[in-house]
Amino acid sequence: xxxxxxxxxxxxxxxxxxxxxxxxxxxxxxxxxxxxxxxxxxxxxxxxxxxxxxxxxxxxxxxxxxxxxxxxxxxxxxxxxxxxxxxxxxxxxxxxxxxxxxxxxxxxxxxxxxxxxxxxxxxxxxxxxxxxxxxxxxxxxxxxxxxxxxxxxxxxxxxxxxxxxxxxxxxxxxxxxxxxxxxxxxxxxxxxxxxxxxxxxxxxxxxxxxxxxxxxxxxxxxxxxxxxxxxxxxxxxxxxxxxxxxxxxxxxxxxxxxxxxxxxxxxxxxxxxxxxxxxxxxxxxxxxxxxxxxxxxxxxxxxxxxxxxxxxxxxxxxxxxxxxxxxxxxxxxxxxxxxxxxxxxxxxxxxxxxxxxxxxxxxxxxxxxxxxxxxxxxxxxxxxxxxxxxxxxxxxxxxxxx
Length: 402
Hints:
Blueprint: H1 2-6, E1 16-17, H2 20-23, H3 28-43, H4 45-51, H5 53-67, E2 75-78, H6 81-91, E3 99-103, H7 108-121, E4 124-128, H8 137-146, E5 152-158, H9 171-179, E6 183-188, H10 199-202, E7 206-210, E8 222-226, H11 260-266, H12 274-277, H13 279-288, H14 291-313, E9 328-333, H15 338-349, E10 351-352, E11 355-358, E12 361-367, H16 374-387
Parallel strand pairs: 1-10, 3-4, 3-5, 5-6, 6-7
Antiparallel strand pairs: 2-8, 7-8, 9-12, 11-12
Helix pairs in contact: 3-4, 6-7, 8-9, 14-16, 15-16
């Protein structure tokens, strides 16, 4: 399976690429469609951007909304999830003393986003520490709900965490936030194409995710989803042709005939829309290649690799299997110089993989996609065994062997 799929990707053959989670990778047929859209734009840019863009941009919304369990009116195409979450964070009416409740597993760029918002508004971030290892849904949810107060205005959670690759069971926390009148804002950067999403059923007020990671669309394709009742709260970061001073009440029409939520965010000056327009091709590629079966194979390979490394290090996993992202897993390793280990893995073994320290835990974060193989996992285990001296029986350390 992996050898055949590997030929369908553009990943360099001299690199063992185990870091799909950071930026994704685009299959050749999808990338070809992306280039077709770019060529069409260049052949008649006035017609493409000036006369046809509103209708052209609608088609990916329809396809993606169907895939994600919502309607085209609740979703808008953007360049990345960080942008989507910034739009939300900087739109909400926060005041001094208001609290944003979040966890100690969040993506650093969004930690900075909320710090910026707090500096501007006088609100404050409250960070709850998720009990580790994460073994039960109640363990997570009870911790989140216990952190809610009458000052909590925003609940900000990752669906799949970036540093720890955990699949947070966020459903009950979102429902409790709704009952208390707390806005729920979900960072779904790693989620679309990784797990099955039913956005309307999930019920988050705001949800932003990337299509360029596990959905395998080109870089620069993402979305923001908002419930109809809260779309009127959103303001664009850039005021351009899509902006209107008309009412933002549900049912209102924007400058180009969609809702203001869509038109104000979609039409923000000249940009290359080709990545977003290629999302339907990425969805077709997944269907044509039975991607559910591919994902099941990748999930098994990821769990097996983590178990094998755990047997060599003697370190426990960060969570029960059901709370680990299916194709991405954070594997604890002994205390070491993580920067040196990352460099040595690449320089000596050509393995591209994130290695870092999260809180007090050194981590190797493994991503397994359809182009990866069991021999690559074997190489990773052997490389870590060598570089960390896991066979020596003494305290593990970075090997000095050259």
